[in-house]
Each structure stands twice: as structure tokens, then as C-alpha cells.
Design a protein that fits this description.
Elements (H helix, E strand, L loop, with lengths): L9 H13 L4 H18 L1 H14 L5 H20 L1 H6 L2 H7 E4 L2 H8 L4 E4 L6 H12 L3 E4 L5 H11 L5 E4 L4 H9 L4 E3 L6 H4 L1 E5 L2 E5 L2 H9 L2 E9 L6 E5 L11 H18 L23
Parallel strand pairs: 1-9, 2-5, 2-8, 3-4, 3-5
Antiparallel strand pairs: 6-7, 8-9
Length: 300
């Protein structure tokens, strides 16, 4: 801990203190500030704006350029809200989280958790992910997640502390698959986010919004190894700071099959359906199509 007090980390501690202070504000005010910040970032974040614009062109081709540009501005507004709300995920009391985070269809999970049945939660990268996850863990007092260490040790330690305060279990991605399997088999639901580009070595190409996308195929493998039920979950920031909605959807039926490509494509299709229900809040600034099939030119 002493090494984290080194002067080179003071700016990181200042950022954390600022986010904790912002977390004390009412959510509607934080929402307005975050929207303003996001619109400002939209103007100056040229590279990320370009990445998000390309992603929207690929995934929302049916919309007009003007409609996609509105989506792009709305997306950056939502990113600003999520950024300023990070302190809520780290520090809000259980009582406040239960007020802010509305969990729909929680009966789909309650009995499974009580019976300690193997469960994997399929959670795409929506911008309200961290606050939604905190509200979910607070309500169910169980869960595990995969994480990857980030370079800033102060921020890394704060994220780990914030995510583990409701009895959740963090498993580093570099650990063996056996650790994940054992945790799921103990009846601890895995909060699983499989929708970012894993690279050519770890991914397989299956359709995503009509485009071939390198996709990690681990969901079907984990479901087969653990005999787990896969339950999709979407997370939405409600308008004007009215709260965060965690929508638990019906389990995937007849999943997995014996065809890994078919299962992975079905996972992407499920994610697409959740995205199209709230397109402005998906994490478009990620280079989802960075890894291209052989012979196809780069998109970014």
C-alpha cells in the first residue's frame, strides 16, 4: 500500500477523490453534468469519435447518416454520465444502490441462486455496466467476474475494491479455465462480458451486425463444461438520471449445441438484439472489428 502513496500516484488519487465527491450528488444532476462532459469530449476526441462512427456505419447501416450522427452524439453523452457516475459504483451504500438500480425479472435468477444452480450471465458492454453491476451484486450478494489488470496500480486497486465489496469473486483472465469452471459449479453466477475483439489467436470469425467479427467462443465452452444456464442481461441508463435498469431476460434455450461456431454466432445475435433496443448506450468506441478476416482491408 505504501508504494501507492508515492507522489507519482497523487494525480490518480485526486481523480478518485473527485469521483467519490461527484458520487454524493443526486443522480439527475450527475446525469446533466455527464451529458455536458460527453458532448464536450465528442468535439475533441477525434480518434474515438471516428472509431464509433465507423462502428455505427457497420452495425446500424439501415439508419441514415444523420440518424447515426445523432446516435453518435447521444453515445458520447451517455459515456460522460457513466464516467462521472463511476464513484457511485465504488462507494454508494446498499440502500442507495437499491433505490437507483431497478432489476427487472429478478425472479428468473432468485431461485437459481438460492438452489446454487450453475448460471452464466451474458452481459454486453453497455455504458451503465459498472453501476448496474454494483446494484446487481448488492441485491443478490453473490457473483463472480473476469478481470484484466490495468497499468495504473491505484485505479486497478480501486476498481478491485469497489467490485468486491458485496462478496463478489474476481478471477484474473490469465488464470486457468478450471478456476472459472469451479466457481460456476459452486453456484456462483458468472457476470460474463464476451463482446470485445479478442484478436486472431483467441477468436473465431462469426457474424456480428452482418459483419465478420473476431469473437471469443468461450461462452459455449463454459456452458458445456459446467452445465450452466445462460441468461442474457441488458443494462440501461434511464433518461434524465431517473436510475439504471438491469433487465434480466429469459434463458437461452437449447444452448449450447455441438457446433461451436453456431453457438458463438447465436451469442452475437442475442447481443445484437439487446443493442438495437438501446443503440446509443452500447460501447461503440471500442474497435470491435479491429481483427479482420484474411484478405479484408482494415476498417479503422
Amino acid at each position: 500500500m505504501l508504494r501507492l502513496a508515492h507522489p507519482r500516484h497523487w494525480l490518480s488519487w485526486l481523480l478518485i477523490a473527485w469521483l467519490y465527491a461527484l458520487a454524493q450528488l443526486p443522480l439527475p444532476l450527475l446525469y446533466a453534468l455527464g451529458q455536458g462532459l460527453g458532448r464536450l469530449v465528442y468535439v475533441f476526441a477525434g480518434t474515438r469519435r471516428r472509431i464509433a462512427r465507423i462502428n455505427l456505419q457497420q452495425c446500424c447501416a439501415a439508419q441514415s447518416p444523420a440518424e447515426r450522427e445523432r446516435l453518435l452524439r447521444d453515445h458520447f453523452g451517455a459515456l460522460g454520465v457513466a464516467a462521472l457516475g463511476q464513484g457511485i459504483a465504488w462507494s454508494a451504500s446498499p440502500a442507495r444502490l437499491k433505490r437507483l438500480v431497478r432489476v427487472r425479472n429478478e425472479q428468473l435468477l432468485e431461485q437459481r441462486i438460492a438452489a446454487r444452480q450453475p448460471t452464466i450471465l451474458l452481459v454486453p458492454h453497455f455504458v451503465g455496466l459498472d453501476i448496474g453491476a454494483a446494484g446487481f451484486y448488492c441485491r443478490f450478494n453473490t457473483g463472480c467476474y473476469l478481470y484484466q489488470r490495468i497499468r495504473n496500480p491505484v485505479i486497478n486497486a480501486q476498481i478491485a475494491k469497489g467490485r468486491s465489496r458485496f462478496g463478489t469473486v474476481g478471477i484474473e483472465r490469465r488464470e486457468s479455465l478450471r478456476a472459472v469452471v469451479r466457481t460456476i459449479q459452486r453456484g456462483i453466477p458468472l457476470y460474463y462480458l464476451p463482446d470485445q475483439d479478442p484478436g486472431r489467436r483467441r477468436g473465431i470469425f462469426v457474424p456480428f451486425c452482418g459483419q465478420p467479427a473476431a469473437t471469443v467462443p468461450t461462452l459455449a465452452r463454459l456452458a458445456r463444461l459446467t452445465q450452466a444456464t445462460v441468461i442474457p442481461i441488458s443494462i440501461r441508463l434511464l433518461p434524465r438520471g431517473a436510475g439504471i435498469e438491469v433487465n434480466i431476460q429469459p434463458p437461452l434455450r437449447d444452448f449450447p449445441t455441438s457446433d461451436l461456431h453456431e453457438d458463438t454466432a447465436r451469442m452475437n445475435q442475442c447481443i445484437e438484439e439487446m443493442i438495437h433496443a438501446q443503440p446509443a448506450q452500447y460501447f461503440w468506441v471500442h474497435r470491435r472489428f479491429k481483427t479482420r478476416p484474411p484478405g479484408q482491408p482494415p476498417l479503422y
